[in-house]
Amino acid sequence: MPKFALFRKRELWFPTIWGGLFFLILLIIGSVFLLKQLAVLLASNAPVADRTYLVVEGWQEEDSLLSALAVFNAEGYQYMITTGGPNRRFLNPTHASYAEQAGDFMLHQGLPAEKLIIIPAPESAQERTYLSAVLVRDWLTLKGESLDELNVHTSHVHARRTRYLYQQAFKDVKIGIYAAAPQSFQLKQWWKTSEGAKSVITELIGNVWVVCCFYPGEPGSHYERWAVEKSGQSSDPR
């Protein structure tokens, strides 16, 4: 009969000093490589095949909007949807929302009005990109559209977060992404400029947050649009 015991002797293998140094060097090399490729990973282009609608995030700079228009024309899309909430960059903006601002820009660049759909978002506590995705989804549902795929155009390192949030809103619809190239820094040398470092680090933090902490709410719920519950309803059930 085995003796009752609270502890048992075990052997555990540890690397030697040279072995530990070897693995440390590998870790450093891998980390440096990953950091150098970080902007490229965040700004990856991965469009899907459907060419019915191209969603364009309206807050982008003019060079990125021109990139979106070039994609629209070159790829033969049927309709462009511009999105975005209230313009917070100026005290007295010329347009009520980024969606309307981008739409007006596209019209001035020669986009036919019958091919343009403007879907502005209201002021809300909800994550702005996600709210725009929800409004696009609901508009398509209202029009009786049933899509298997949908492409979105955004600005360089924001691409991975945009794609993730649209995928959260659309669930079974496969989301593709276009990322306009940055004009103020190079993706493969992002750390060499303050603009590049700020953009990449901000987006890295944003991506970590949406993956680990973002709660979208149930589809069709009040929370999904406003990030707050109606009076009398329970909050985040997690």
From TrEMBL:
Keyword Transmembrane, does the record have it? yes
Which top-rank group of organisms is this from? Bacteria
What's the protein here called? DUF218 domain-containing protein
The DUF218 domain covers which part of the protein?
55-205
Ordered alphabetically, the record's keywords are: Membrane, Transmembrane, Transmembrane helix
Q: Known InterPro entries for this protein? A: DUF218
Q: Where are the transmembrane segments?
A: 12-35
> Which organism was this protein described from?
Methylophaga muralis
